[in-house]
Amino acid sequence: MPRFSIIVPSHGVAGRLSQALDSVLAQSFGDFELIPVCDAPDSPAADVVAGYAERDCRVAPVHSPPTAGLAGARNAGVRAALGAWLLFLDGDDVLVPGALAALDARLSETGDVDVLHFEHERTPWWVGEPTNPAAPLLERAPDGIFSPGRAPELTGVQLPAWSAAYRRAFLTERHLAFPDGHFTDVGFGGLVMARAERMAVLRQVVVRHLLRRQGSRLGLPGEHHVELLDQAELVLTRAAEEGLSGERFAALFEQLFAAVLKTAAHPHRLPRGRRAFFRRASRLYRRHCPAGFRVPGGSLGVQHRLLAKGAYAAFRALRGANRAAARVAAGVPRPQGLRTRLRYRRQLRRPLDQNLAVYCAYWGRGYLCNPAAIHAKARELAPHLRSVFLVEADQAHTMPKDVEYAVIGSRKYWDVLARAKYLINNANFADAVVKRKGSVHLSTQHGTPLKKMGADQATYPVVAAATGSFAKLLARVDRWDYNLTSNRHSTEMWESAFPSAYEPLEYGYPRNDVYCTATAEDVARIRRELGVPEGKKALLYAPTHRDYATGFETSLDLEALCEEIGDEYVVLLRAHYFYDQGAGRSTGRIIDVTAHRSSEDVCLAADALITDYSSIMFDYANLDRPIVVYADDWDVYRELRGVYFDLMEAPPGRVAQTPGELAAVFRDGSYADEEAGALRAAFRERFCQFDDGRAAERVVRRVLLGEPPEAIPPVIPLAERIPAPAATTLVRN
User: Fold this and answer.
1) How far is CA 320 from each of CA 282, 315, 332, 543, rounded to the nearest angstrom?
2) Helix, strand, coil proportions of the chain in percent (round to 5)?
3) How many DSSP H helices and E strands does the chain contain?
4) What would the pLDDT profile of 1-48 be if each residue is shown by its tens digit?
5) This model's pTM is above 0.85
């Protein structure tokens, strides 16, 4: 039997779950079992956990459906646990180094207590000093083993479940479990302390709790706050049945109603039903108020008295009077120009147009990427919708003739943004755009992240300086309702880079549908349009942008490369879209395709890809054609730009670090040999999970037509997909 069973619910925290698991497995004290609780075998967290379970036999995952909530997940972990002591850890929290050794030492001193409380740190997600809210409470507790009556302030309702170790036999013998619903920690803590007989404390930080940027679910608006009264009623009723002493019951009552009054007085937690909440709380207060209870002093005491009397009107007046002005100030849009601002504000007062969808790609560069693919599919599946693309004035001429558009900054631009039900973008809309109630914002993204993105860029000075205000960036992210992802890696990294309350959609990238639907005739046509000579093998060279460089630079001499590898090859040069200045770099066997509108077309035309660290490799891998990574400055790039994984450890094919090495893999054919194929297969398994040719359909059905998740077409397994055919067979002549 292990000393500790550590139960880690993982719903919604896949992006940070590995940190929690690593913090446990890195402990110097190793006598434990680690029980991650996942939603289902195919959930994002289950993918993370599976790798740990393969590497360490102490990892024993279990499953609990999301509908069971946090309480169900923890109870499932308890049922599976074998350890003498139970610890609970949220999936985005960590055990501090040496935590288990400190707990083991303290429990060896105390023996079989029922509960051992310990300290924890609350760490701001961004900046700020961590706090230790348990320290003042535990400081007043006796030093040795004590009964709850000697520390009546330790009621259990002020400390989270992950701030204590519980003797498993105590919980099972007393039939103690987490009560269903929200605020389950309040109910569990109160029930445990009502039954505990022997306690001890460890005045040392054991858990480091990361405060999420989007806040706890318990602090967000919603009807779930009514469940706080359910938990309070459960605990008070059980405490009365247990015959708690007057002092203990009074402390429990006061702490529970401190939480109840905080919710009742909060202006946003209960958007409706505040009067009903107050009245029920008042009845609960009068029913359980202990004889001789002394209300606190000051404003809190006034709230106690008003609650006891059921005086809702007076209580509401006490809450303050400046909230309306604050809401108005926060919601004022700021488009340029007074007349435009006034027009936009007028349009915001009009009802949403339920059949209007607005699209934008790459800050207005035209009809491109995922938004264009979704737009095209919406015309087929949702023809009742009016769709408007946003485009910069100098790109308006590139728009297809049959696509309605609005020039960015124009009156029409602000009018459609103010009234659209659906707003779809692969980057972000302007700061001034207001997220209206009832509107649906979809972020489609435009690549799989190798380099650090969003908030994760903050520790890289070169990138952070170019990013601008992270606060403004995250305010834009807060408008998202959905965030599209093409693989499980992206799901996890977006959660870290863009922390907010959106729902991830693991549907694939619509722009990549063409890699499964294009025909040989399509490929031949595109090659003719790009000027690829008949019978030649086309190598696409697509380097990424360097944040620390000025302008388009490459250390690779493409003309020399062409001479080295033979005249059967031509090179399609596609610089990063920051540098689409036309076709001025076309010479000889080098065809500059930077200005070509569609990167998907260019990929279809290419028989193989040469890239450095560009996200184009993840899209191109869907074609199952050879990829060569030219990594001449990987160490510099990784240090200055930051990356999410070591590309050199998991490349999509052969890696070359010098021009000579690059030429050699084409001369000897190793760029397309069996070993290169095995690397590509592993890469595809990891990064081509959802791009099966039906991504656009899934997005339209879920987001624009409102179909339920269970009605959305499932992803076709990778082994069953047939990529678009290459123009030539890549073998050495």
Assistant:
1) 21, 10, 22, 57
2) 45, 15, 40
3) 28, 21
4) 899 999 999 887 777 888 899 999 999 999 999 999 998 888 888 888
5) no
